[in-house]
Structure formats: structure tokens, C-alpha cells
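subagent[fold] <- orchestrator: predict structure for attached chain, return C-alpha cells only, no commentary.
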Amino acid sequence: MAQFSCGQRPSETKADKEPVTRKWVDINYAGDTLTGHLLDIYLPSQGEGPYPVIVTVAGSAWFSNNSKHWAYGLGEPLLKEGFAIVPANHRSSREAVFPAQINDIKGVVRFLHANAAKYDLDTTFIGITGNSSGGHLAAMMGTSGGVKNYTVGKKTLDIEGNVGGNSKESSRVDAVVDWYGPTTFLQMNSCGSSMEHNAPDSPESVLIGGPVQENRDLCALADPITYIDEKDPPFLIIHGDADPLVPHCQSVLLLEALTRKGVAGEMITVPGGGHGEGVWVDKYIEKMVTFFTEAKNDSSFKIKKR
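subagent[fold] -> orchestrator:
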């Protein structure tokens, strides 16, 4: 089976060598025993808490239920800028089909709100970043804030879910950095890819529980573009124009849809960038750090959304 994950993976440097004052590892945010429901929390060494938060989700073609160690690498540069980072697992698509994965990440954010004081977190700002399939979930978090049951055609899905409870807490996020995430599954083949996304065993087909071209309503429900409205938080999208697995057009479609709805969005196209290769480099990592810092400091984003 052809797979995509994050291509060139971020650093997996051990957290105990990084500038953290406190850390909590393998917290189950759902109150069960599933590996896919574990998260870690790392606090920076500088400054005083509570600390603003970035949730990180690693790419795995949605096949992994235990990739938070890779997700740590996505957030590591943000620790040095005073952000707490929360690398989070989600259930594998082989364990449970969509919307289980977005239900899980929404459960993460509600858990953080409910336990902010315990972990010294400032949940008035929660950003999210992810790469590849993690970028898809980050984008979904950005556009589906406040969405519960949603219907396309003959299919209705519960996008919010109730993972971990904390139903009185918000699952909205305040800013999104999407590293080359897929969006519109039905167009992945037609706009260029080296893998067969329409195959019944493709990552997208496994995610929704059937071949994508035979399940168009489910594809729409798994597309972050479906949920965009004017209340969505700002986006930074980073994608290589030579990505052989998640074609560059996926991010172009997302940016165009955000722009039509008046949502603040910026896209960085990396010339010659592959599926992570040439993309996860200092130049663009610094763009992510600057974006989250500016979004945190601009209260108009929070006022607009909440």
C-alpha cells in the first residue's frame, strides 16, 4: 500500500535535553486505555506561566496511533519562544474511520481547557500545527470550530464528538499552521501525484472507510474546505510545489477557499520542495514561529472568533 507521512521528519531530539521546566508524558485525554488517546505536555524554561499553547499533530497517513514523538519535533522550535507544546496522538484509521481522528483532536483541546490550571497553560491562546495527514487535521480544527453534526448529501457525521467529555469546554483554536496537508481527496489524482489516491487501499480511502470516488459525500465531510466561514482563525500554509504525494494544489484550493470567505490566510510555496524535503528547514520553521507569535499578540483574532 502506498503511504505518505511527513517525508523529511522533524527532529526527534529527546525532550529532557531541551529548554523545558516541566513535562508530563503519556497523559490519557480520553479517560480510557488507548494509545491513540495519549498526549504529552512540555513547558518552556523561560518566562513565567501560564504559557500559551500549541498542539502538534504528526503525519502518518492517518495510519499511526502513536506518533506524538514525531509531533514533538514539530513543536520543539516553539518551546524556545515561550509556548507550551502538546504533541498528541489520535486513533489510527485502521482502528476507527473518520471522524474519529478529528473527534480525538477536538477532545485534546477541550481537555487542555478543562485542565489549564493543573498544567500551567494559558488557554486563551491555543494554536495548532501538523504536517501531511497531521496538517489535514490541523486545518480541520481551524475550519470546523463550533461544528457538531454536519450533513452533506445523504451522509451526516458528528464532527465534534465527545472524546474525553468536557462538553462545556470549547474545541476552537486560535491559529493554524498547515504543513502540506491534503484537503480535497477527490482531486488529488487529477492535480498531480505519484501515488494512486483513488485506490480502495489508499490512505484517504482507508480514512473514510471506502474508495474515495465512490464516497463523495464522505470526502466532502473530511475536507476542511467544507466548513470554512468568516469566524475561522488565521492560517499559514506551507507546501512544496514538487510534493509527489500530497499535490501542491491541495493547499492552493484551501487558500482560495479561505480568501473567498474573508479568512486571514497566507501560503508559502517552496520551489522544488518535496513531501517535507526542502520544506521543513529553518527558513520556514522561523515563519511558523513568527506567525504564531504575531497571532498570539493580536487580540483581534480571538475577538473575531470567540
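orchestrator: received. Logging for downstream: Helices lie at 68-79, 100-114, 133-143, 203-208, 216-221, 249-260, 282-297, 299-305. The two ends are 42 Å apart (CA to CA).
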